[in-house]
Amino acid sequence: MAKRDFYEVLGVSRGASPDEIKKAYRGKAKELHPDRNADNPKAEAQFKEANEAYEVLKDAEKKAAYDRYGHAAFEGGMGASAGARGGQPGQGDFASAFSDVFDDLFGDIMGGRGGGRGGQRATRGADLRYNLRVTLEEAHRGLQKTVSVPTAVQCGTCRGSGAEGGSEPQNCPTCSGMGKVRAQQGFFTVERTCPTCSGAGQIIKNPCSECGGAGRVQKERSLSVNIPAGVETGTRIRLGGEGEAGLRGGPSGDLYIFLEVEDHPLFQREGEHLFCRVPVSIAAAALGGDIEVPTIDGGRSRVKIPAGSQSGKQMRLRGKGMPMLRGGGQGDMYIELAVETPVNLTSRQKEILREFDRLSENNNPETSGFFKKVKTFWDGMKN
Hints:
The chain is α+β, with helices and mostly antiparallel strands. Helices cover 29% and strands 25% of the residues. Keywords: Chaperone, Cytoplasm, DNA replication, Metal-binding, Repeat, Stress response, Transferase, Zinc, Zinc-finger.
């Protein structure tokens, strides 16, 4: 079976730059790596084919010979300079091609995070989450809040190094400070975390007695948090560097304050607006009048009820809602009327209501309109 054109194998043009060739090979190697294609018997052969193509095209002299003579440049006699340098492609050390992109691919293929060369001696601390509940009044005005956060802080005895009294960590003898070891398995190389130093690249022969070599200790810290006016449930506040201390002198993580605003017995919140449901008597709704309502800042406002108001009627108090979190003004407060039906009536009250009902035939337009529609509906069903 004739060999495929090397440019076609990698999916690049003949004028492709070395960076474009390397990028194309990286994509093919990731796509065809046997570890990702256990159920594809052709993947291994295609993977080797891509390695063979890259072994030639990454080398300027081999590439020039291939451009001039094609595959014949490596089949005895022709392209002597190329043959002298590398022999037939695919017969030499495959790792010389794959190692060019191994570090980039390793993290993706093996499931690691950023498999570059060298271990990370200092590890960044973890981010922390703290859930904080505030009242609606506190969310309205904003406040300073002190929170106690249990976390890992840098060890004061060894100053985060993990080593006892003046001694220093030493390079791991197994991985020579790389944090990883490589092993040849068949035609490809496998890289694993060093078992001696667990990827740190260093070992501590004389660990700190305070932190046991970790470079950090558990402690509860008190922090002052500024809660801006207008926060709502789900608002997140980031405190940079206030998270868990890093291992062996690494940078600290961040602390994230997640806010939850408690429900209020009088007000319901929708964004920057507040709603207050106010019960009124039938007489007050029918005759109209003034009522006094509370506001979120602890004040009072007088609201005029129009005569003949129905349940659900809303009246707006401008600027009496919640402040907008990033400036831009204040929301409004809406008063919603709930006309209340009286209960536990006396005989005299019942008598008065019956008389009132007889006299109010033309005073209930909504009721009259509804029953007219009902009559029209029934007449239509009969026809």
